Model the fold of this input.
Amino acid sequence: MSQSGSQAAAFFRDVRQSGVVWLVRDDEGSPAPLAADGTRSLPYWSTTARAARAAKIWANGLRVESMPLDVWRDSDLPAASSEGLLIGINWSGPRLVGWSSLPSKSSDGSRRPISSRNRSAERAVAASR
Done:
């Protein structure tokens, strides 16, 4: 299994157990890095420690926040879909890379994400919902 694949598996395992999804944001919203193909992804993590590492890498005053899994699935995923955003899960490493998928596929760990994309720390902030 690839590094991105193991991170995705950990994401689904952890959030099923905890019922919580973690994100990073500032007062303007969450980072939605731009990929080379022009798509943007909203990243989420399965533990506070994973999200805290991302906030430290991206810096710029980002803070870690939690969200109940059902709110993520029923509210954030549909909102991301309507905005044309992909969902990144458990991005890791010094450049925060990993899988991104369509929001409709992100809530079900049995479906494979659509791609493994290199998301650099080039920061773009999505509008707050």
User: Anything to note?
Assistant: The mean pLDDT is 81. Helices lie at 3-18, 48-58, 69-82, 103-106. The chain is about 35% helix and 20% strand.
